[in-house]
Target: Major Facilitator Superfamily protein
Amino acid sequence: MKRNVRFIFLYIFLAQLFFDRALWVIYLNEQGLSMTEIGIVEALMHLSVVLLEVPTGIIADLYGRKVSLLIGNLMSIGYGTFMLIGDSFSLFGLALVTLGVSVTFQSGAEEALAYDTLKEYGQEKKYTSIFGNMIALALISLSLAKLLGGWLAEIDFSYVYAGVILSHVLALVPIYFLHEPPREKLEKQSVRKQWTSQIKTGARVWKEHPGIHIPILFFISLESVLVILVFYGQEYFVRLGLSTFWIGVIFTGEGLIGAWMAKIAYKLEEKWSFFSVTTYGYLLFLLFFILFIWSPVWGVVLSFLILCQLLTLYEPIFFERFAKQIGKFRPGYLFLDDQRC
Model:
């Protein structure tokens, strides 16, 4: 069990080394794309996530989490390559669609693999703690990538995307060594039947487990708002007079604080009820979102950092609740697009 968890941790660290995460909007703007065009390519990315979340979830169910992670990681390499060689709206659009495909293949796969590993050894109770560690490690990795990305961008943006490609090539190593616990084999069906079955399963889960309705809607609403802040906040920070290096520092600080927050999430779950966490979390999110809009530069940065931390705290608690409610973990049941800080 410990060996598999270690390889999951190693994979997460390498797969989260997106050196452009705090800078890609700035990069596209420097490449000549207007904010409208950037909005369009970003919309294409999210559209690809929505359209492909179900079929990629089916692939994970039929062929395993390892296969899903492998394909997703290869797509990440493709994303870095297209961004590196891109010189037109169409190529950058292709790059963002590739990133969206990557997200759908990896969405929930690491969490599901970790949960199945713990379940195989009867250690499901450790999931919130393990998942908190996974988030913490991802944030540390992403924070390092943001800091290095800001420094690399000051030299040459091509180094940023060369780093993305290299890190995801290295991520293929832990994927190879991952052990996937045995699970129920699904009957192979036509693509149409698979799609229909997955939709029906998702609808059944939604109908049979009303307790997940509010948490899911709450989580999606928070994450949707934060996606907008993260993506367009990059250019907003530039317009506030911050350099790419300092933007990288801000995102790095957010990630490091978030790593600590993810580590203590399980303590919050033990102390307060899920309802209390959801209610107070929403009120705090609303408060600091308002402050983000009407604050001076230091207030904007502070509000941004706190907003990210609220989602970081809530995420492991949410997935633990979701896993308990439905009794098993399968990506693709519901459309959960993870593009947070």
Summary: The two ends are 29 Å apart (CA to CA). The chain has 15 helices and no strands.
